Fold this protein.
Amino acid sequence: MGVSRGLFAGLRGGLPALAALLGLVAFAGCGRDEGPAPLRVICEATFPPYEYRVRGGIDGIDPALCAIVADCLGRPLETQDMAFDAVIPAVATGKADIAASGLTVTPERARQVRFSQPYMEAAQVAVVPLGSPIRAPADLHGRRVGVQSGSTGDLFVTKTYGEPERFQNVIFAATAALTGKVEASVVDRQPAEVLVSRTPGLRILPEPVTRETYAFAFAKGNARLCAQVDAILAAMRRTGALDALIRRYLDAMARQRDGDEAALRDPVDTADIRAQVLADPGLRAELARLEAALPAAEARPPWWRRLAETARLNFLDGQRWRYLLDGFLVTLGVAALASLLGLLIGFAVAAVRATHALTGRLRAADALCRVYLTVIRGTPVVVQLLIIYFVIFGSQDVSKFLVAVVAFGLNSGAYVAEIVRGGILAIDRGQTEAGRSLGLGHARTLLWVVMPQALRNVLPALGNEFIVLLKETSVAGYIALMDLTKAGDIIRSQTYTAFMPLLAVAAIYLAVVSLFAWLLGKLERRLKRDG
Amino acid sequence: MADPQPLIQVRGLVKRFGPRTVLDGIDADIRPGEALFVIGPSGGGKSTFLRCLNLLERPDAGTIRFRGHDVLARGADVNRYRRHVGMVFQHFNLFPHLTVLRNITLAPTLTRRLTPRRAAAKALTLLRRIGLADKARAYPPQLSGGQKQRIAIVRALAMGPDAILFDEPTSALDPEMVGEVLALMKELAHGGLTMVVVTHEIAFAREVADRILFIDGGRVAAEGPPSAFFDNPANPRVRDFLSKVL
Ligand SMILES: Nc1ncnc2c1ncn2[C@@H]1O[C@H](COP(=O)(O)OP(=O)(O)OP(=O)(O)O)[C@@H](O)[C@H]1O
Ligand SMILES: [Mg+2]
């Protein structure tokens, strides 16, 4: 523990991401009295110039400002990268001290967290393909619009233009606009400019969809840290340090846009600005005063009140339970149809492979099947899903539901094939020989003699495969299909609640899986009894 | 005394498993209506010979002619040939997921040899003949070994084959069930069915066989009518074998 602590201190300046990781490890084992507690900062680091990955860690306006805050407070900095949806819930529940992720101030978010004074003004813009009939934000009415799930663009579009297509990040949202999956995507201006500069075929509407201010977020009870950050921001604004810092990052972005690939690859040097802020004697006195004047954290209402309030917010307000119901039906539908497709593919592939193994025929088809099995079982299902959506059906306008059924069906088929093939090969050779000796051909023997017995033996394994598939469809949200998991995410992104929607989603999965497993158990016992 | 047209004629049959030559040039004629019994020491290649006759194993050299037609020729219809030459296995190999009736009617109906109705009628007639008509709706796991083997024989008969190959049909049975199976086989032999029987039941062979084929080390070491074979063996290997089993 002493060693890891020392390691942490040594890495502090240079490798924030690694340090964050090591810091977590060190933190878990650390006693209270070993120096000041680290300042835990979280962000989603795919959002230049606010936060993005550089060689050796995370850089951007937000991390740079947080580094100054940490220096001013004399606390070590721990930066952690997480999904954007999770940033506000994490800070609201005290898993982090500061959410610094290009967060726009909205009334919904303000119900969950405490915001600092804004440090930046920004805008949401619409990205459209060249030649699009959409020329101004008003044209977005009645169009299919893409957004980053949980972003302010998401909230604004949902409220103003109706349900959008929600993507995992800005890049997916913009790609969807390019390939015609959506007619426009509403995203933050700065990352949009970077993306458009690198992606021919897209442009940004000149008139912003909405304007907004960016601020840091804290837990509601953490008034002291919020006041201290406000004091630091105020001092930096007074001395011009804030503008200088932001300008440095915007310059780096501009250089990058002009073709300097290295501009966003290495951390931007802000050491001088940091030193300047630290040297401000008035600021130091103000911070000390706040430290003494305000309590570390305020008491929260009793847990059951918070629970009831959270439940109301998440499920009743705005009829949010409907998301769960709709998502649940989508999940069931995708899982059921995909497993039908999987059975079809799986049996066909197993028949080809078993035929080849037993007779040596169908060599080419067998090779093809092996390639299919290798590719499917060697890559993550979410990657397959994205490839099928963006690459294979990239330019067609097909329903996402269908894409999900195809993707998960293809995936499941590989596992079904192996299960069934195992079942076929487990059947005594004598059965095949008896069939053949009666003058039945290979196909008839397989179909009438071997398959029925194999199927019966592998029925439990196939049932398990269905359970696995049902759970795997939870990544359908990557193509903006609103399945059960995505429904929970949408609620979370609207209410900024960390746990409850997640727990509700988990409970629904668990209930379905348990029910199915119970039925499967009954079936299995019955098969056993019937010998 | 060679029949001008044997039902099955085997010449120079060779079968290798990897480096091992298991059948090393077998010549044999199977004449219509005869009961040919194949005996010999364990590992001598009797089962392999029988499986080659049914093409469950593909010979490496030699010819097999059925009514004069080369069944090993390229393009020969193996399935059609097998409809003429049935097989009964040591371990019965009934289909456990099908009823006794369906076990018997499956092949005749799938191959369109019989309509479903006629196949069922024929199956019931055969079952009645062996006294198992009441088991028509039963599943194989519910039957005794002797019952299973008799049904396996009936299953082969239902295809109306010209010959049936038996590979040690009683050696997986409890002793008290051997008799019922042998009785059925004897009845079939007397009825004029062509049979090739691999067996260790020497007494049965002696009683029922028209001819004996002694296979040892992948070759036909001796051949002849049972009287000469058993009472007066010229070949020392046969004498040696008989002294061990009798
Ligand atoms: N599929 C196979 N692969 C390799 N070797 C085999 C195979 N089948 C049989 N053999 C070998 O070929 C030889 C002859 O086997 P076969 O079963 O024909 O003998 P058998 O005369 O029927 O003996 P038994 O009286 O014990 O049944 C044996 O040594 C056996 O191990
Ligand atoms: Mg044998």
